[in-house]
Amino acid sequence: MSSTVIPSPVPRLQSIDALRGFDMFWILGAEAIVQAFRGMNQSAPVKFLAGQVEHKDWAGFAFFDLIFPLFVFIVGVSLVFSLSRIDSREGRRATLGRILRRVILLFVFGIFFNGGLSRAWPDVRLAGVLQRIALAYGAAALLFIYCKRRTLVIVTVTLLVGYWALLTFIPIRDFQLDQASLSAKLGVSDPSMAQVHAAFEATTDRTSGHYEPGLNLTNHLDFEYLPGAMYDKYYDPEGFLSTLPAVATCLLGVFAGLLLRREDLPGSKKVLLLAGAGVLGLGIGWAWHLQFPVIKKLWTSSFVLVAGGWSCVLLSFFYYLIDVRQWRGWCQPFVWIGMNPITLYLTLSLLNFNMIASRLVGGSVSKWMDDHVAAGMGGVVTALLGLGLVFLIAGFLYRRKIFLRV
After folding, report:
1. Hey, what's the torsion of the CAs at 75, 229, 307, 143, to 10 degrees?
2. For residue 173, what is the DSSP state?
3. CA-to-CA distance for 107 and 127, rounded, in angstroms?
4. Who wins on pLDDT, 276 or 402?
5. How far apart are CA 272 and CA 270, in angstroms?
6. Phi, psi torsion values for 402, nearest 5 degrees
């Protein structure tokens, strides 16, 4: 397999850092503000916005379902610039070392975020958000430095079509791993894991083409082979098989990064191409949804295209404002966060910013605002203060040039 000719590095694009920060902004506290406003106002627009910062239970797509794949997409964009820089300055061996080190550290940080070894085995969760980012980054990075663009396209299409084919055509046990079905089948309200495994293994009927919760190839493979604790008890949204299309999400970011680093195209043309690719991804993804539903917890191929489409549209918007028009003053707080996303994310496992804020403006202070300003105002102020603490920490780290590099 021929290797990609990696061109010389180009200056850092602030729009990438800002978009990464905008993405983390919702994880670190903005969602709590929207939910707090729902406590003040029960109007239809507010309820709609509040619904957008909640994940869909299964099929469908809300704004909050974009947050995770957008980050994976940005990882793909960023690796084009970072690995090109390392490869041109230090060589291929240093590049491979960087990839391996980052994969290992992200995976370990992910286990720590999930609680680390605070629980006895097998109650330690090995899968998770940072672990998926680590694996998607590692695979996409190796493909980027060793494969030509045409090969990257073939790999991406193969991952998406292959994942659809696996879930659609491979027979699985006709056994649904959800609490209601298990309680009805086994006649107990809370069956033990041993009881569920025994009933699962005893099932001989086979079925295929299912994408319901607990009745699909992805969930069944997790149940049978994924060690440790799982987020949904019997399976994990960041489990084995669904990591494959997550690699495709990262590769979509690689394609966007390759476009942004081209020097033969003006910025305005890059904006149009990114936006056009986004609209195309949305169209194909929602058309595919009619047969292969958009499901974040399975990371379905249609979900990859819909999330990738929105990611391209957002990137085109940020790139146009920040790097083409040079309107940068508004985005600096996002840049602070975007330069230290892993540090701030890990901080969430140690500090609860809303809890700290509630100790400052909660209790009688919050009640006074509810009684004398507006019902629910105490919750809004608490959420705003919690997010303000995030910006305070992020700004401090940025000004002191303290960055966690993995």
Report:
1. 40
2. E
3. 9
4. 276
5. 5
6. -100, 110
